[in-house]
Amino acid sequence: MKSSKLFFLFLFLASATFLSAQQKVVLQSNGTTTVFGGAQPFTDAYNASATGDTIYLPGGSLVYPTNITKGLVIYGAGHYPDSTLATGKTVLSGNLTINVGADNLHLEGVELTGGLFFSSNVKIDNVVLRRCRFGNINYVGNASPCENSQIIQCVINEGITLSNAKSSTISNCFIGGQIGNGSEIAILNNVFFYNTTVAYHIFNGLKNSSVSNNIFLRRDRADCIQTGCNGVAFSNNIFKHSTTNIDANNSDINNYKGIDIDNLFVNQSGQVFDYSHDYHLLSPTIYTGTDGTQVGVYGGLFPYKASAVPSNPHISTKLIAPQTNNNGELQIQINVSAQDE
């Protein structure tokens, strides 16, 4: 019953948005649904919300609360061009800060053009960032570390700073830059492009962590995998070079070295993420990870969802007649697909 109500709510939201010039944001709170319009519907919905509530965002660029202090569930329409043709992608332009009170925040299906910042030395636990795109992610400070963060199936243009994070997971993501600091971090099944204008070493200061089943597309140097790391297990990763600088302070286990990364994927080139590329492995059964599934984003516990479609009902197509017919009726066709993952 709950899924049926959500499905029809989505149909209503889609119709309301497409038939007006205003963006609509839906807030679900304690069994009550409220639709916000106006100039800043996301901000208004946020101000009316309480921890535990769910907010549904439309496509388009939104005015948004830049300081999140509530443990909300927030769904956008997604960020891939091919899956947001009907809605437009949900875009937040600028930076976003996660602050005290935002434990258990779930953010999914949005593109943040700037940086995501966990407020300095504030302990914010159990945050889930899923199927989003970020400029960069920063856990600021070095005290009261944030725990049990999950960064899953995201695109991070630059890097991730984990100075105030521990016991967390970064899995099945596309990452453009360096991962700095952090302890007890599971870094699994990612693709690292490593744009050398962002940082020097791929890992800097990481402690007591697992780096497994990843693909590293660094082409220029073999000696810049890690620096200042200690107790890190590097296992079942793909490297271009036959040698790496994984030293005695860390473990080098069953890694694939000297791999022709230019012929690794169905379609990939360059050092930055590209929506038009196909990151499936040409030979997925050859390169297996620690769990027996393929390395890279399509293996592991969280295989990459096609086009990173959010897990809430998804508007795939829309067709709205430009005018009413002879009976005064406006023909509307909206296809909404329920998601099961």
Q: Briefly, what is this?
A:
The protein has helices spanning about 1-20, 40-50; strands spanning about 25-30, 30-35, 55, 60, 65-70, 75, 90, 95-100, 105-110, 110-120, 130, 135-140, 145, 150, 155, 160, 165-170, 175, 180, 185-190, 190, 205, 210, 215, 225, 235, 250-255, 265, 280, 315-320, 330-335. It is mainly beta.
Describe it for me?
The protein is built from two helices and 31 strands. Mean pLDDT is 89; it is low at 1-5. It has 341 residues and is mainly beta. The chain has a single domain (2-337), classed as Pectate Lyase C-like. It has helices at 2-18, 41-48, and strands at 25-29, 32-36, 54-56, 60-61, 67-68, 73-75, 90-92, 96-98, 106-108, 111-118, 128-130, 133-139, 146-147, 150-152, 155-156, 160-161, 165-171, 174-175, 179-180, 183-188, 191-192, 203-204, 210-212, 215-216, 226-227, 233-235, 251-253, 265-267, 278-281, 314-320, 332-337. Strands 4, 5, 7, 8, 10, 12, 15, 16, 18, 19, 21, 22, 24 and 25 form a 14-stranded parallel beta sheet that branches. It is globular, with a radius of gyration of 21 Å.
**What share of residues is helical?**
under 10%
Low-pLDDT runs:
1-5
In the CATH scheme, what's the topology name? Pectate Lyase C-like
Strand content: 25-35%
Radius of gyration: 21 Å
Q: Which architecture would the CATH scheme give at its second level?
A: 3 Solenoid
What is the arithmetic mean of pLDDT? 89
> How many domains, as an integer?
1
Query: Which of globular, elongated, flat, extended, rod-shaped describes the shape?
Result: globular
Secondary-structure blueprint:
Blueprint: H1 2-18, E1 25-29, E2 32-36, H2 41-48, E3 54-56, E4 60-61, E5 67-68, E6 73-75, E7 90-92, E8 96-98, E9 106-108, E10 111-118, E11 128-130, E12 133-139, E13 146-147, E14 150-152, E15 155-156, E16 160-161, E17 165-171, E18 174-175, E19 179-180, E20 183-188, E21 191-192, E22 203-204, E23 210-212, E24 215-216, E25 226-227, E26 233-235, E27 251-253, E28 265-267, E29 278-281, E30 314-320, E31 332-337
Parallel strand pairs: 3-6, 4-7, 5-8, 6-9, 7-10, 8-10, 9-11, 10-12, 11-14, 12-15, 12-16, 13-17, 14-17, 15-18, 16-19, 17-20, 18-21, 19-22, 20-23, 21-24, 22-25, 23-26, 26-27
Antiparallel strand pairs: 1-2, 1-3, 28-29, 30-31
